[in-house]
């Protein structure tokens, strides 16, 4: 992809960083760059996978901008942001009188993406019934509005993104295997920032210049010590986290504004603040309590990472599903994501990084 071509794409698709910032110099991103133009030209489904904050949205926009339907609409659906009860009508639309409150016909986003690109972000959040309808769209190019009697034909390029391993979701029974094979014709992997640390300084410089201009600020370049600290940080939020750090630094003008976020990746089991009182100390009791609290926090974080999919969390923790359920109850954690977790016990303080 030439710089001239990329520049015109950035102008037409909105605010996209320069080519050298998007792809950097890392081997995995260079592989994505090499595939991009060929993938975009072929009208086949594309699955983009990688952790949150790695730039899947930008790659989807570039695929659309390099495709034969670049003059058509790019319609994005953020699957987790729309409640499951509304997602079907948002995707496929509905006819007048299809349900209470349907006072008129409404086209869905699939229909609005005709002769363009439908971008389904976090595809793993679709429930099984919607997965069936999406499978029909991919197989036959047809869909049915809610309340309609006949299918409609549509020409649309489908690009999907996920931060989960869909193979694990298939094993857990939450994702259809046949749909996975349909959307996974071409697979693009976006590496986390910790796997492309050589690109970090260029990203820092880009965000610094970008937000200095945007906010009319004059924040100075980061010190070499801070750059070294950033390079050793694990960045769970990836490029999005780095961008937010730099945005905060530009606004506040002090490196102290971001140092609080640079906590170690691994929890320090020996950093617990234990209240020492007069009298004998039960090392066994204190150790057991610290381990219990640490286990509670680890289980909570793993459940949150897997969107409260307990089977996936059990696999990640390498324990049985029954053992995880027992530990959830024993730790006082909610069994579902919509329940607030029980308050953490007081006493020994052992924490995982935010």
Strand and helix map with partners:
Blueprint lengths: L2 H11 L5 H5 L3 H15 L4 E4 L6 H10 L8 E5 L5 H9 L16 H4 L3 E6 L6 H13 L1 E2 L8 E2 L2 E7 L3 H6 L5 H7 L2 E4 L10 H15 L9 H9 L5 H15 L3 H4 L23 H23 L4 H8 L3 H10 L24
Parallel strand pairs: 1-6, 1-7, 2-3, 3-6
Antiparallel strand pairs: 4-5
Helix pairs in contact: 3-4, 7-9, 10-12, 14-15, 15-16
> Beta-sheet strand percentage?
5-15%
How many whole angstroms does the radius of gyration measure?
Answer: 24 Å
Written as H for each helix and E for each strand, in order along the chain, the element string is HHHEHEHHEHEEEHHEHHHHHHH
Strand adjacency order, main sheet: 2-3-6-1-7
Derived from helix and strand composition plus strand pairing, the structural class reads: alpha/beta
Task: Describe, in plain words, how this protein is organized in 3D.
The strands form two sheets. A five-stranded parallel beta sheet has the order 2-3-6-1-7. A two-stranded antiparallel ribbon has the order 4-5. Helix 7 packs across helix 9 (177-183), helix 10 crosses helix 12 and helix 15 (310-317) packs across helix 16 (321-330). The chain is of the alpha/beta class and 354 residues long. 46% of the residues lie in helices and 8% in strands.
What's a concise summary of this model?
The chain has helices spanning 3-13, 19-23, 27-41, 56-65, 84-92, 109-112, 128-140, 166-171, 177-183, 200-214, 224-232, 238-252, 256-259, 283-305, 310-317, 321-330, and strands at residues 46-49, 74-78, 116-121, 142-143, 152-153, 156-162, 186-189. The protein is α/β, with parallel strands linked by helices.
